[in-house]
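Lecture 7 notes: from sequence to structure.
We start with the chain below.
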Amino acid sequence: MELPGWIAYYEKHSKWSLRNTLLLIDSKLVKWLGKKHKAGNRKTVAKLQR
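Predicted structure tokens for the same chain:
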């Protein structure tokens, strides 16, 4: 997956869409990590911020 390329494209053409897309990716990542490590949402977010 070419994520940096997509980010560069959306950054030039539609910053609002980029923001929404990145927020969606973040929420999916938090949910996936929470399931993988069987941790709550707060613990998962804390792990991501490290």
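Points to note: The mean pLDDT is 80. DSSP finds three helices and no strands in the chain.
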